[in-house]
Amino acid sequence: RRYNILFGCDELLLSGLMTGVDGAVGSTYNFMAPHYRRVIDAFQAEKMDEAKQHQQVATSMVEEILRHGGHNAIKAAMGILGLDCGPPRLPWKSLSDEARTTLEQELTDGH
Description:
This protein is mainly alpha-helical and 111 residues long. The protein has one domain (6-110): TIM Barrel. It is built from 5 helices and 2 strands. It has helices at residues 13-18, 29-44, 48-67, 71-80, 97-110, and strands at residues 6-7, 23-24. A two-stranded parallel sheet has the order 1-2. The N and C termini lie far apart (36 Å). The mean pLDDT is 92.
């Protein structure tokens, strides 16, 4: 192939794979790689029901991240995993301790 096509919408990875993309780039892959790997593996094994289930879990987790503000929640999620990426840039603010605890619980429940 002349080009490698990458897909950039985490919530629609499975749809991208179905259209023939070669890979993906996205911000939630940094801390949810196992979920997306399961989507890809199931897709490649032609287990579409399984791939859909894994994609739904990942999409639900992305929705939680967005509910907490997006970029600042991604920074918090990375910190929860032990990788401090520093504070979010303005205009975003770091999550409160309460919001961070809630996010950690929501992400853990999604695993």
